[in-house]
Structures are given as structure tokens and as C-alpha cells.
Design brief:
Largest sheet: 8 strands, mixed
CATH class of the largest domain: Alpha Beta
Number of helices: 13
Order of helices and strands: EHEEEHHHHHEHEHEHEHEHEHEEH
Structural class: alpha/beta
Distance between the termini: 53 Å
Radius of gyration: 29 Å
Shape: elongated
Number of domains: 3
CATH architecture of the largest domain: 3-Layer(aba) Sandwich
Strand order of the largest sheet: 7-6-8-5-9-10-11-12
CATH topology of the largest domain: Rossmann fold
Length: about 400
């Protein structure tokens, strides 16, 4: 059996291509919306893709007798993704799910085609009342996928929103998006800022992989607590692997007028803490470690054990993918991480990868950064703002 694929800007044009190539007796096997991307990854214009064959014999579903006036108009997707005998474009009957099932089974061996996105969204949710997703929910689903949220997770969120929404809400994209934002907000835990109390010393360590902006973030925190909160702040760096990192932090310390210690061993770390005993907040900047290097992770764990940090903030870049973020958080968990600090929000194409990270790590978010300016471009994490950023409802 020969199955051919046709693409066009609309269903009507696609049917005309099928009719000219295979004849009026050809059978429509499947239709779906696709993006005509460049090299298979750069999104392009939306098109309609249909599979058709002149060999499959499908029973005609056209009514016997006078033509009906309530048939689907030409160019619509009412026949997606069923199978019907092609007549004129105005004769296409409504979708019959039984024909869809039978013809998919008939061509399965000859054309191994996964279910289309439209078919997936048309399936009833696994829990709750059975319903077809409206166009507004479909568009919201594509927005989540564009924001780099995994399709399975995006489907779960859309189904939960649709199950809780009323009939009128399902037709209002703004209402659905607001409901989804509240749902995402419930998934995001925030830990609040570092709390420095008079008469107490607070030791905060900053850890993370290389290149995520730890040193710049430490400088931002130090500048804010010294210049705006009027706290006594001290800096310790154990990042002796990169001379540039030490000089960068030293430059910030001199500008802000902060004491700074450079250490390489646990003994030197204990001595540095003794010299900074008069400070209210001590920020410890550590060397970047690959999450795959378990030996270096254990060395860092041993070093942090000497300083007995009150808080350990894991710095992660939002530019990384969701799977990479989850794997990194799992590897650094051995250091006793107490909070996540998210950087480079301004460089990320989408924030959808954060939700799997937050679900699996179960850690609160303390701060977010969106630039290189010191002491600016850092803010205490807010669940509502992060949820709206995930949906593209706020500009960074």
C-alpha cells in the first residue's frame, strides 16, 4: 500500500493537492498541523500535513440523498484526523472517531506514524470527566511547550486547569492563563532572603557548577547587605582554581570596603572564620564543580563541613535544560543544599525546565538574578512572578 504525504497552508489546499495527485477516489488517512521549520528545529509557519492513499478502500460516509447544509466548511480541521473518501471540499463530513481508529490500525504496518499533536490533545484526560480540549486550551498547551516545558508535564497542567474550569472559562484564554499561573505558583516554593539578626553571625555558602555566576552573585549579595542593609559583611573564597575569580571578588571587596579571606584548606578556612568573627554575615564563595565529578563534590563537602554553614545556596543557570538542572541538583544534594539561587533569567529562552527541577529537588528558591550589574539585577524570589515568567506574562 502506497501512502503519500502532502503539505499545504490550509486543509482546502491540501485536499486539492491530494485530488490532483491521487484522484478523487483517494482516501484521507490522517491530517495534522505542523510547523515548516528550518533544518527541523527552527520554528516556521504553521501548515497542514495530510496522509493519503489511492489503495485503501474506505467506506463512504457521505449521506445518501440531498446534500446536507451543516457539513464542515472547506478549509476547517473538522475532519482531523479521520479517514474519508475525497469528493469536493464542501462534502467533507464531520469527524467520526470510529473511522479514525479503524484506519489508523489499517495503515500502522505500512506507515509507522506517532499520534499527532491534535490527536493527543483530543484524547480524554486519564482522570476526571471526559472532554475534548477547546482551541484555547490547545493554544495554551503550545505556549507551555514553547516555554520548554515537557509535553507530558504540559498536558498534565492543562488537564488539571480544564477539569477545574467552568464551561465559560474554557473559552476565555485570559481566564485559563490566569488559572494556570495560579496552579504554577502553588508548585513553586520560595525561601525568602537571608535573615541577619543583630548579635548573631550567619555563615552562607554558595555552591554550584562552573559558569553559573557564583562569584558575581556573591558580590551582589555582599553589596546589598553592606550598602543597603548596613550589615557587617565578610567574604571568604575557596575558588583558588581560578585566579580571575579571586581577583574579581577582591576588586568588589575593595570597592565595597569588605574584609576578604582566600583559603585553600580546611585549616585555613577555620582560621579565616576566626579572623572574621566580628562580622554579622559571612559569604563563602566556592569553586565550580562538575556534577559528574564525585571526587571534587566530596572534597567540597569536606571543606564546607569545617565552616558549618547555616545556609547552602545552590546556584543554577536558567539557560540549562530541565534534565541538566535536575541532574545537577541531585549531585549537589550531598552538600546539604538548603535553597536554590537561579541566575541568568534574562538569557533563558524559556523557564519551563524549572518546574521539574522544583518538583524533584523540593527545595525553595531564595534569589533570582537577571543581569551582571552589581549590586542590582538580583531579587528575592517570588512565586507569583516566577509563575508568570514561565508563561511569558512578564518581561524580564
Amino acid at each position: 500500500m502506497e501512502v503519500k504525504t502532502f503539505r499545504a497552508r490550509s486543509m482546502q489546499e491540501a485536499l486539492q493537492l491530494v485530488r490532483r495527485t491521487l484522484g478523487a477516489d483517494a482516501t484521507l488517512l490522517q491530517a495534522r498541523e505542523v510547523r515548516n521549520g528550518l533544518l527541523g528545529w527552527l520554528p516556521g509557519a504553521r501548515q497542514v500535513e495530510v496522509l493519503a492513499s489511492a489503495d485503501v478502500q474506505a467506506p463512504c460516509r457521505l449521506p445518501v440523498g440531498p446534500p446536507r447544509s451543516d457539513l464542515a466548511p472547506p478549509g476547517t480541521l473538522a475532519a482531523l484526523p479521520g479517514a474519508s473518501r475525497l469528493g469536493t471540499a464542501s462534502e467533507l463530513p464531520p469527524l467520526d472517531c470510529d473511522y479514525q481508529t479503524r484506519f489508523r490500525a489499517a495503515v500502522h504496518d505500512a506507515q509507522a506514524e506517532p499520534p499527532s499533536l491534535v490527536e493527543q490533545l483530543s484524547r480524554p484526560p486519564s482522570r476526571g470527566p471526559v472532554r475534548n480540549l477547546p482551541e484555547t486550551a490547545f493554544r495554551l498547551f503550545t505556549d507551555l511547550v514553547d516555554a520548554e516545558l515537557h509535553e507530558d508535564l504540559a498536558r498534565e497542567l492543562i488537564e488539571r486547569v480544564c477539569q477545574a474550569a467552568g464551561p465559560h472559562d474554557l473559552t476565555d484564554p485570559l481566564v485559563l492563563k490566569a488559572r494556570l499561573a495560579r496552579l504554577l505558583e502553588e508548585e513553586i516554593r520560595v525561601g525568602g532572603p537571608i535573615v541577619v539578626r543583630p548579635g548573631e553571625r550567619r555563615i552562607v555558602a554558595v555552591v554550584g557548577p562552573t559558569g553559573v555566576g557564583k562569584t558575581t552573585t556573591v558580590a551582589k549579595l555582599a553589596a546589598n547587605y553592606r550598602l543597603r542593609e548596613r550589615r557587617r559583611v565578610g567574604l571568604i573564597t575557596v575558588d583558588t582554581y581560578r585566579i580571575a575569580a579571586v581577583e574579581q571578588l577582591r576588586t568588589y571587596a575593595e570597592i565595597i570596603d569588605l574584609p576578604m579571606e582566600v583559603v585553600a584548606t580546611p585549616r585555613e578556612l577555620r582560621a579565616a572564620l576566626d579572623r572574621l568573627s566580628g562580622q554579622e554575615l559571612i559569604l563563602v564563595d566556592t569553586a565550580g564543580r562538575s556534577p559528574r565529578d564525585e571526587v571534587k563534590i566530596q572534597e567540597l563537602k569536606s571543606l564546607l563541613g569545617e565552616c558549618r554553614a547555616d545556609e547552602v545556596h545552590l546556584v543554577l543557570s536558567c539557560v540549562s535544560g530541565g534534565q541538566s538542572l535536575r541532574r545537577t541538583a541531585a549531585q549537589f544534594a550531598a552538600l546539604g543544599v538548603t535553597a536554590l539561587l537561579l541566575t541568568k533569567l534574562d538569557e533563558a529562552n524559556g523557564l519551563g525546565g524549572l518546574l521539574p527541577l522544583l518538583r524533584h529537588s523540593r527545595l525553595p528558591v531564595s534569589y533570582v538574578t537577571d543581569g551582571q550589574n552589581v549590586p542590582d539585577d538580583i531579587a528575592v524570589a517570588d512565586g507569583k512572578t516566577l509563575a508568570r515568567m514561565m508563561l511569558g506574562m512578564l518581561e524580564l
